[in-house]
Amino acid sequence: MLDAIGLDDDHVLLYRSLLAAPSAAPDELARVTGLDSVRVRRLVDELEGAGLVARQASAPDRVVASPPSLALRPLLLESERRLAAAHEALVHFSELYRHGAEQRAAPDVVDVVVGPDAVRQRLAQLQASALERVDVFVLSEVALMASQDNLEEERALRRGVRYRVIIESEVAQRPGFIDSARVTIAAGEDIRVLPSLPTRLFLVDDAIALLPMYSHGPDRVSGALLVHPSGLLDLVMAMFGEYWSAARPLLGPDEPSVSQADRDLLSLLVLGMTDAAAASQLSISVRTVQRRVAELAERAGVLSRFQLGAEAVRRGWV
């Protein structure tokens, strides 16, 4: 609750207990909170040092809670000041990085990350920094980390980051994979399948890509290439788009079909009608057509109307 100002759950539990009582001794707090008495005494000292509790003048072994408006406000203001300073530093560093990136020569558009641990660390950083989308190739034999160890993916999905994952068909045959996939799909992840893929890939916000390099040792990953904005990154993005369009949904048979109204709209678009013509035929507004097309494209995981038409035919929507 107050971890942003350095207080963990035990600190908060103790402070809440003191707020509800006129005063208390450490042993009493231990009974009320269920915490170990030694732990309680240490927490009381830490809360006192933070100004959240004070010793009772008439009984120094007892403590009282300081008013939250007096005790917490300075801590929160200091935390906000530090956060604002960190944000300013981020903006400044990002500008420096952008300026440096503009001066990159052709060989500088790729960084080399050496060692499996460094690759896993960079992968976690990339996912933690994702704002909108992470695109992934998953190979059957080479893995950077087990899915249950990829905690940043779960956090990113909770933030609303969209994952588009293409797996090799053998991956879907792993024990328990489908049950696990249902959970991540429900959390907002799209999973599609192809018989084979050319490489392992992580593409974050169409801004940076990580391509692992393989070895034959026990770790199987000796390093990775980090691709910055460039023609090479554009090529990686285009490659992912082509593979995504060709892949089939992992749980396609369970996917609900589109409505008849959407089928009618898609049929008109496949025929090459403009938004205005389709709107006139369906007796709806042009804005409604555009909204429904955008929703269908999002559902199909495509970026253009042409791709939507092809995907609609492939999925049997028209």
From TrEMBL:
Q: Which residues form the HTH luxR-type domain?
A: 255-312
Q: What is this protein called?
A: Transcriptional regulator TrmB
Q: Which domain of life is it from?
A: Bacteria
Q: Which PANTHER family match?
A: HTH-TYPE TRANSCRIPTIONAL REGULATOR TRMBL2
GO MF annotation, one: DNA binding
The processes (GO biological process) annotated in the record are: regulation of DNA-templated transcription
